Structures are given as structure tokens and as C-alpha cells.
Amino acid sequence: MIIPPSFRPVTNGHSEPNGTSIPQSEILPIINITPYLLDEQFPGAAERRAATSAAIHEACINFGFFYLDISAFADPRDTEELASLAREFFSLPQEEKDKLALSNQDHARGYARLKENVTNGKADNHEGLDFYRPVENPDKNKPLWGENQWPTIPGFREKYEKWIEKMKMLGPIVMEAYVSAVLIQRVHFVNVEQDGYWSGSSVHILFNFGYPPLPDDHNGFSCGAHRDYGCLTFLYADPTPNALQVLVQRFGIGADVAGLPVEQGNEEGVWISANPIPGCVVCNIGEMWEIWTNGLYKSTLHRVIHRGTNYRVSIPFFFEPNFDAVVKPLDAALRIQDSRKEPPSDKQYKPVKYGDFLLGKVSNNFAGGGGKYD
């Protein structure tokens, strides 16, 4: 039986960190990707796909985040195994982990120590192990030129490369659903593919984050508030509750601005927890989709505050455009904005080259002021 996409609320209600009760309507929606796994000729496939795209459209306008049910696409045991392997790596002696240090390669691929990553001027209370798309012809003068550094843990590389391939397949499937959501003509989507948005030097990134519990006297965050820079994020996290928090904009409700980037310090809204749901990944849009839709979709602030007793593991995969792709507002998105009843925005986003945008964003992400790609 195929479950239609829906906005099913999560039943475990909770309170916002400052005590504000979060109504059920503020829980992230759950959307099933199954209709886009069906053959287009399957009876009812077109209607189910349309419903999925409509659900994604509303989720991106209202939240910028949603749960993506991929239980028909990926075996949950695979992600559990990835988390177990990541936990095994992070439990190694420090000198063993340091053998894969970022500085060995391009300052992008490899291991980052606890608190080596910085968000909004504060050290994040996590360590990480990062992998990027392999390059065919390494060039030290170009960003991301290096080679991935793999732990020697048996099965680690094999299992992770299998998951990366799975997520690389999921990216275009979800992109097609987005394309339908903003009414982009199919021919335009094909042209975008042919223009090299997702081929050649397109970027895919897989991070592993290990989060020890925050000390009781710690006044920072496990990961400070930020927006994702690129296109789509698919996040798997272990079952740890109340760690990942998403800022849902609600005008007239002041958010806790502590730890927000200066330029977003006046945000209005509430922080809600995006607790893991079996069979789902948390999907959110990055700033490229905000530009493509001229702000109709928002890349949403999110953060991690882990005060539990366990060691939390999360594994985000970032599906990104070509490094040289020029991203600009789409005519279809502008037409949707013109047709909406809200007062039109006078702001039109300027085109950006994805690679330049990415490098500019991460230039201050590491302790000592050095960027990942220096």
C-alpha cells in the first residue's frame, strides 16, 4: 500500500526552550517520497506525484524543513549501521583520529577535532569527519582538490560509499518533485541538467558529526544557528531527542536570539525540535533554493543543543549544484510570487556562482580564523 504524502503531526508534543508551548501545527510535516519512486505509467502516479509536490511546496514556504519518508527507498538498518561505524570512529584514541586531519589534504576532507569548527564566532561542541565528491584530476590550486581520507575500520568505506550513491540517486528524485512544485516546465529542468548543474564538478558532501553532551556550565551550542548554503540536505541522526532545533518564523513572536548570526538577530518565531523519526530523513533547503525562488522558499535557521547523556551522531548529506553553476531567480517562481495575495517583495535576489558563494560562507568556519579551503 502506498501512503499518500501528508502533513501528519508528530505525537510527542514538547515545549520551546524558553518554555513557550509549541502547538501541534508547528511540528514539521512528514512527506512520503514513494510516489516519485513509481513508474510514471503506474495507475494514479501522476496524481500522487502532484500531491507530493504540493506538500513539499507548502512545507518549504512555511518551514523550509520537513521529514522525508524514504522507508520505501532505503533500508533503515543501513543508517543504523552508518551511525554505529561513525560512533566507532569517534571513540578511537585522539592520536588515531588525528591521522585523518583536515590539514593532510585540502582542509575540507578528513577529521575535525572537537571545537575546531566555529559558528557565529563560537566553537561548536562537536567533532567531525567529512567526505566530498572525489576529483578525477587533483589540483592543489583549486578548491576541493584533495582526496577523501577513510578510516581503516572494516566495512567503513564500503558502507559509506554505498550510502553516498544512494543519496546521489535521491537528490534528483527530490529535485524533480521541487521542479513540479514551482511549476517549472519539464523542458527547462532538462535544460538545467544539460547545462551541467548536477554533473561535471557538481558537489556532494557527506559529514559525520559526533556530539558529546554539552557541559552543564557551557553557554554555547553544540552547533550554532546557521542556514545551509547549498541546495538540499538529507539528514540522518541517531534517536537522540530534542537536539536539532529549527526556527519557525512566526511574526509577532520574538525568538530567543542568543547565538543567532548578527544579520538574523531580529528573527521572529519559535524554536521547535526536529526529533528523529524512523524511516525518515530530515530534509531542508539551502540558500540556492531561496535564490531560485526569489525568497518564496526560505533557507531556515537551525541549531543543535545536545544536553542529553549520550554521545549523539548525525550524518547529513548535501546535494549541491555544479561548483561553477550560476544560480538566479527562476521565472516560474517569480510568477508564483506575483500571483500570491501577500504584498509583493521589492527584493530580487542577485545571481551567484555557487562555488564562490560556498567559499565565501565557510571562510570563517574554523578556529584560528582560517577557512576550510585556505
TrEMBL record:
Keyword presence, Signal: no
Domain of life of the organism encoding this protein: Eukaryota
Region of interest called Disordered, as start-end residue ranges on this chain: 1-23
Cross-referenced InterPro entries: DIOX_N, IPNS-like_FE2OG_OXY, IPNS-like_sf, Iron_ascorbate_oxido_reductase, Oxoglu/Fe-dep_dioxygenase_dom
Pfam families tied to this protein: 2OG-FeII_Oxy (PF03171), DIOX_N (PF14226)
Keywords: Iron, Metal-binding, Oxidoreductase
Protein name from the UniProt record: Fe2OG dioxygenase domain-containing protein
Organism: Moniliophthora roreri (Frosty pod rot fungus)
